[in-house]
């Protein structure tokens, strides 16, 4: 295969020392071994077919030599060259047939490895903390996974099917030349091989700088493109289409420069390889021709050496291509495996039991929390939510209200104090059992790009259709859904953009109702609703919160007047607490907020 073949794959640039890069490469290769061992018999048969194919390929020139020598003898019987020609044809067939059988058998090994690793990465990403996902760039991560899985297929196939058989073929050819002919044939062959490999390794390492830079630019361009398309409406609001195109082109310009350098350096590599091979073949043919003239070799021997050189030329040239592509595949896989090395900030304790729910009573004890040590979010927060009670948290934006729900879900661990449910520290139980016990209606509802039915049923995927419809009715969205041309099968669009804010929030409420959790969190659950809809939904929320432990995070105080206890937060501290009536009587911050909101409504 010509060495000019070049896949344009991408990978972000990381600066490594050669030894560090080598260690990383070997780590990546070792990580693939378990996937080979899963199909031991297939791999064994594949290796046998590989050896047979190469042996057949090496024997072909020997058969051709005998045909040429036999044809050079007029007195030879006609049956002899015909027999040799038939044998020559069969050897050609076997060298191809064994290779095809090998590919067919190995396909399952490769595809299973891709599936397993992609699944492992996907699962690992879901297990990483919220902090990681708030900082990640979706476009770049998706590109890393895409390139990495492609790299697995290439690495497995070419390491086993090209590096090993090429070295085997070179060894067999060199051995035949050494045994049958003048040692200089083997010496020239080996010298050419060593020079070729040294040149290929040196130039390929030099080219990897351009490759990584090109990958870096591509990942950044892809991230900008995805981010811009996700925020399509914002771009339109401000008329910044040209600005977005310019930002995208800024990265693509860098990619273009690196891609051109990558291609020109490839041309340099190809030219150097061709020169080395041409010199080696010329020297061998000169030596062979001299031997024929002296009568030490036959014309068949000359043909044999020439065919061997052609057969060596192809795998040698291909070896250079394979080495480059393996280095590229390792670079492509490097980022994906770095994702697997990303530590899980929140992990279950070894042997953690499942949460035992009895009363579903929640307690925050002297909780302190910060995302950054320089900026404290919560200071010594303590309160109880008894079983079946509703506790509301109110306060200005940035007071730390929504952080309470994130800590209760254990998206983060508290820095001080503890959160417990029925006396069990949530850090000591499994995250799966903890989150199964809690349902939430978030302030910003983001839906999957699927049907309305799918998004409601996501609260409990095994629910019956009747249960899904009942949840929609409870959330007062059933009538709206039925009015749509496709009803429950209507698509909601990317992040639910085809629905209004109120419709999305009703879907979120229906989803929480369907989950039927012991603990409920309403995080500004009615913020996107108009006053009329809010009153209707508020009655339903009170109904589903009855006999459940409920935490309500609200800005509109009219939605929490029935709460058993109201906490007023400011700058991460609880500054007031009590029932609606008690707080009004205190004439404090809550009373001022209430008066202001009543005035605004009037």
Description:
With 602 residues, the protein is an alpha/beta fold. The protein has two domains: 20-341, ABC transporter type 1, transmembrane domain (ABC transporter transmembrane region fold); 362-437 and 517-601, P-loop containing nucleotide triphosphate hydrolases (Rossmann fold). Helices cover 64% and strands 10% of the residues. It has a six-stranded mixed beta sheet. It has a four-stranded antiparallel beta sheet with strand order 2-1-4-5, covered by helices on one side. β9 (565-570) and β10 (573-578) form a beta hairpin. The longest helix is centred in the middle third of the chain and has 53 residues, at 241-293. The protein is elongated.
Map the helices and strands.
Blueprint: H1 18-37, H2 40-71, H3 79-127, H4 130-135, H5 138-180, H6 183-230, H7 232-237, H8 241-293, H9 299-341, E1 362-372, E2 375-385, E3 390-395, H10 401-408, E4 416-421, E5 424-425, H11 431-436, E6 438-441, H12 452-457, H13 465-474, H14 478-483, H15 501-515, E7 519-523, H16 531-545, E8 549-554, E9 565-570, E10 573-578, H17 580-586, H18 589-601
Parallel strand pairs: 3-8, 3-9, 6-7, 7-8
Antiparallel strand pairs: 1-2, 1-4, 4-5, 9-10
Helix pairs in contact: 1-9, 2-3, 2-5, 2-9, 3-5, 3-9, 5-6, 5-9, 6-8, 6-9, 8-9, 13-15
């Amino acid at each position: 295969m010509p060495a000019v073949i070049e896949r344009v794959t991408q990978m972000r640039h990381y600066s490594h020392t050669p030894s560090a890069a080598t260690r990383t490469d070997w780590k990546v290769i070792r990580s693939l071994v378990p996937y080979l061992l899963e199909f031991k018999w297939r791999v064994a048969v594949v290796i046998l077919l590989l050896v047979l194919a190469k042996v057949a390929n090496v024997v072909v020139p020997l058969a051709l030599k005998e045909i040429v020598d036999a044809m050079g003898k007029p007195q030879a019987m006609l049956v002899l060259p015909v027999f040799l020609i038939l044998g020559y044809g069969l050897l050609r067939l076997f060298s191809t047939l064994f290779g095809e059988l090998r590919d067919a058998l190995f396909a399952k090994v490769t595809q299973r490895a891709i599936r397993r690793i992609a699944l492992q990465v996907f699962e690992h990403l879901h297990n990483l903390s919220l902090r990681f996902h708030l900082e990640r760039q979706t476009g770049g991560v998706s590109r890393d996974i895409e390139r990495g899985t492609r790299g697995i297929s290439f690495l497995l196939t070419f390491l086993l099917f090209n590096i090993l058989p090429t070295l085997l073929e070179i060894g067999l050819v060199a051995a035949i030349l050494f045994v049958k002919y003048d040692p200089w044939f083997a010496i020239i062959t080996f010298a050419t091989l060593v020079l070729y490999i040294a040149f290929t390794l040196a130039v390929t390492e030099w080219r990897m700088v351009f490759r990584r830079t090109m990958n870096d630019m591509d990942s950044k361009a892809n991230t900008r493109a995805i981010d811009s398309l996700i925020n399509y409406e914002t771009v339109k609001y401000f008329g910044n289409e040209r600005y977005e195109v310019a930002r995208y082109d800024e990265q693509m310009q860098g990619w273009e420069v690196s891609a051109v350098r990558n291609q020109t350096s490839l041309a340099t590599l190809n030219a150097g390889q061709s020169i080395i091979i041409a010199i080696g073949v010329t020297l061998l043919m000169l030596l062979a021709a001299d031997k024929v003239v002296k009568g030490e070799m036959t014309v068949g021997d000359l043909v044999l050496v020439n065919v061997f050189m052609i057969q060596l030329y192809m795998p040698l040239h291909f070896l250079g291509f394979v080495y480059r592509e393996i280095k590229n595949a390792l670079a492509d896989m490097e980022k994906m495996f770095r994702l697997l090395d990303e530590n899980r900030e929140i992990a279950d304790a070894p042997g953690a039991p499942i949460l035992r729910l009895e009363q579903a009573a929640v307690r925050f004890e002297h909780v302190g929390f910060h995302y950054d040590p320089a900026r404290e979010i919560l200071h010594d927060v303590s309160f109880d939510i008894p079983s079946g009670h509703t506790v509301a948290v109110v306060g200005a934006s940035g007071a730390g209200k929504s952080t309470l729900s994130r800590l209760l879900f254990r998206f983060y661990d508290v820095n001080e104090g503890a959160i417990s449910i029925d006396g069990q520290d949530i850090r000591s139980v499994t995250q799966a059992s903890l989150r199964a016990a809690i349902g939430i209606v978030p302030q910003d509802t983001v839906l999957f790009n699927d049907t309305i039915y799918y998004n409601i049923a996501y609260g409990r995927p095994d629910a019956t259709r009747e249960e899904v419809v009942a949840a929609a009715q409870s959330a007062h969205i059933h009538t709206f859904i039925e009015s749509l041309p496709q009803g429950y099968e209507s698509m909601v669009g990317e992040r639910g953009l085809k629905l209004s804010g109120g419709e999305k929030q009703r879907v979120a409420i229906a989803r929480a109702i369907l989950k039927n959790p012991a603990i409920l969190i309403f995080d500004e659950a009615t913020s996107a609703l108009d006053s009329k809809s809010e009153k209707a939904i508020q009655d339903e929320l009170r109904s589903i919160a009855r006999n459940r432990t409920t935490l309500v995070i609200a800005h509109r105080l009219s939605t929490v007047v029935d709460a058993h206890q109201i906490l007023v937060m400011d700058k991460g501290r609880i500054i007031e607490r009590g029932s609606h009536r008690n707080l009004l009587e205190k004439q404090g911050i809550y009373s001022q907020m209430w008066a202001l909101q009543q005035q605004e409504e009037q």
